[in-house]
Amino acid sequence: MAGYPGRDNSGTMRPRAVQGVYGCLLMSYEFLVGLRYTRSKRRAQGRNRFISFISLVSMLGIALGVAALIVVLSVMNGFQKELRTRILGVASHVQISGFDGELSSWQRVADEASRHPQVRFAAPFVQAQGMLSYDQVVRGTLIRGVLPDAENKVADFAQHMRFGRLEDLRAGEFGIVLGADLARAMRVGMDDKVTLIAPQGLVTPAAILPRLKQFRVVGIFEVGMYEYDSSLALIHLNDAQTLYRMEDRVSGVRLKLDDLFQAPRVARELVGYVDADTLVSDWTRSHANFFRAVQIEKNVMFIILLLIVAVAAFNIVSTLVMAVQDKQADIAILRTLGASPASIMGIFVIQGALIGFIGLGMGVLGGVTLALNIDVVVPALERALGIQFLAKDVYYISDLPSELLWADVFTITGVSFVLTLVATLYPSWRASRLNPAEALRYE
C-alpha cells in the first residue's frame, strides 16, 4: 500500500510517500553539489577561480571541436552532393548494354526495363571512340549518339548548355554538341565545322581509308566535370548509327530512377525483367573509385577532428583532478555525514558531465547555425579579407556547398558526450576512494 510505513537507515519509521520525497532529495544533492563546484564565484579563492577558468577552457574547447566537426562534415556532404549531381547530370543511374557492345531491339529492352516500379525514363545511346579535327588541331574524344528528347529525360544536359540547345541535334543534319573544354582546346565556336574521324575504315583496293564526316557545332555544354567537358561530344543517334555502321543497333539503354540511391538494388532486380543477354551496371560501379575516395576522406576527417574533441574532453581530467585536490576537506566532511563513495563519485561525474554538456550544447548550436548559413558567412569573409577561397579559374566548384545531415549531428553529439563521460571516471573514482581521516588530519 502507498502509505505503509517503512524503516529508513536510521531506524526511523517513515511513510513510503515521505520516503520517496526524501529519496529524491537525497538523489538530487549530488547534482546540486556538482553544479556548485562547476560555477565560479567572485568571492572564490584564487585556486577555485583557476579551476573554474580551466573548466571554462574545457567547455570552449569542446564547443569549438564539435562546431568544427559539424561544419566540416556538412561541407564535405555538400561537396559530395554537388559532385554527384554533376556526374549524374551526364552519366545514367543504370545502364543496360550488350555483352559485345551492341544491343539490338533496344525498344523492347527499354519497355521491359520500364516495367520496374523504380524506373522512370529510358533512352538509347550509341557510344564510340573518335577523333575530332579542326584547323590542324586533333583531339581524341568520346562520341555519344543520343535522341535529344529522350536524353533530356535521363540526363541534365539542358541545364548545362552554354550555347545552343540539345534539340538542335537533328537526324541527317550531322550536328554536334561539344564540351566546353573540348571546344576551347580546339578553338571552335558555334556553327564551325569539325571533322569526325571514325576508327572503322573503308577497305579499298589501294588501302584502308579512315571514315570521315564533317559535323557542324550546334551547341556547347559545361557540366563542371573535366572528364566530360574535355572529352565528350554528342551527336544524333541516327547519325552515329550511320557513321559507325550500326544499322538499327545501339550500344545500350540508359535509365533514370525515382531514387538514385536504390540503383544497386534496381540493377540486380532488372536482370529478371530484361529477357536478353545484357550487362546491367549502375552509377555506383561506373564511378565507384571516386565516390569511395570521397567517403574515405570524409571518414578520415571525422576521425581527425574527433581527436580535437577528445583532447578538449580529456582536459576535464585535469579540471577534476585539481577539483578533487582542492575539495578534499569537503569530501571528507560529506563522507563523515554519511555520503557513500558512489555519491562522491557521482558528484564529480556530474561536474564533468555538466562541463561537457554545456560545451557540447554551445558547439552543436554554433556548428548547426554556421553550417546552415555557410553560403552567407563565406562570401562575407571573402569580401572582408579581399580573397577568394575557391577561385573559379582553378576549381570547378567555386562556391562552398553545405548539406547538414542530422544523422551526423546526432553521431557527433553522442560520441562527444561519451568521451566526456569517460574523461570523468578516473578522477571521480579517485575522489570516492579518499580516506576522510587522512583528509582531515591537518585541517
Short description:
The chain has 15 helices and twelve strands.
Ordered list of secondary-structure elements with their pairings:
Layout: E1 5-7, E2 13-15, H1 16-38, H2 46-88, E3 94-98, H3 106-114, E4 119-134, E5 137-146, H4 148-154, E6 161-164, E7 175-179, H5 180-186, E8 193-203, E9 208-221, H6 226-229, E10 232-236, H7 237-243, E11 252-257, H8 263-270, E12 278-282, H9 283-286, H10 288-326, H11 328-336, H12 341-372, H13 374-385, H14 406-432, H15 436-439
Parallel strand pairs: 5-10, 7-9
Antiparallel strand pairs: 1-2, 3-11, 3-12, 4-5, 4-8, 4-11, 6-9, 7-10, 8-9
Helix pairs in contact: 1-12, 2-10, 2-12, 2-14, 10-12, 10-14, 12-14
Give a quick set of tags describing it.
12 strands; disordered N terminus; 15 helices; six-stranded mixed beta barrel; 20% strand; 2 domains; alpha+beta; two-stranded antiparallel sheet; 443 residues
Describe the structure.
The structure is a single chain. The chain folds into two domains: 29-81 and 291-438, no CATH class; 92-284, no CATH class. It is 53% helix and 20% strand. The strands form two sheets. A six-stranded mixed beta barrel has the order 4-5-10-7-9-8, surrounded by four helices. It has 443 residues and is of the alpha+beta class. The two termini are 48 Å apart.
